[in-house]
Specification:
By secondary structure, this protein is α+β, with helices and mostly antiparallel strands. Helices cover 12% and strands 26% of the residues. It is an enzyme of class 3 (hydrolase).
């Protein structure tokens, strides 16, 4: 399966769930950093009050959402950067925010990039993940993912015991969209944002393999 097939021709909510258990990587100065995607959020275009494209908003800042599925939408809030992937055909501005990964590759470098943060705090949030990768600009915004240092492995996927869903984090508007279960995550995985210790599962929510 190629990126275009994966990130188009099906609902964004389905894509957001299918990304769970796949490996996201970033090449930083010749070293591969990354881990298993454990948390995503779906944003459903002009009708979605929380989407950057709500009500058809369009500007150079959010043009990445209007690109064809598989293009990157990297945006900044203050000094922090966030990683989205467009998920529909051109000019249909839906996308998925990658919120968290369970680190598996280049962990020492990611700890250094996070100023010594270790354990769950290393990558349990979208800005933390980008800091761990060493991303400090929007350089790869508006690019197809295959032409950037980022990669999502579409050939393999770690088996998940349960995919859970809930309201997106940081969406505080007093409307129905703030409550919709458009955040998807590996139930019981400690790298998921705001995961309570009591809810952490054996093997981090992955299916045990022999």
């Amino acid at each position: 399966m190629n990126y275009q097939n994966f990130f188009q021709n099906r609902p964004t909510t389905e894509i957001a769930q299918d990304l769970l258990g796949r490996t996201l990587t970033y090449e930083n100065n010749g070293e591969i950093l990354g881990g298993l995607i454990v948390e995503t959020e779906a944003y459903l275009g002009p009708k979605d009050y929380a989407a950057h494209s709500y009500n058809g908003r369009r500007s150079p800042a959010n043009e990445g959402l209007y690109c064809p599925g598989g293009y990157l939408y990297i945006y900044a809030q203050r000094q922090y950067f966030f990683f989205d992937i467009a998920t529909q055909e051109k000019d249909n501005p839906e996308g998925v925010l990658i919120r968290a990964i369970e680190p598996t590759l280049g962990i020492k470098t990611m700890i250094k990039n996070r100023s010594g943060k270790t354990g769950f705090l290393l990558t349990n949030g979208p800005a933390k993940m980008m800091q761990a990768f060493g991303v400090t600009s929007r350089k790869w915004d508006l690019h197809p993912i295959e032409k950037t240092p980022f990669s999502v492995d579409l050939t393999t996927k770690k088996a998940i015991k349960e995919i859970a869903s809930g309201p997106r984090i940081g969406v505080r508007q007093d409307n129905d969209w703030s409550k919709r279960p458009l955040r998807f995550y590996v139930a019981g995985n400690p790298y998921v944002s705001d995961m309570k210790k009591k809810n952490i599962q054996e093997n981090n929510g992955w299916v045990l393999t022999k």
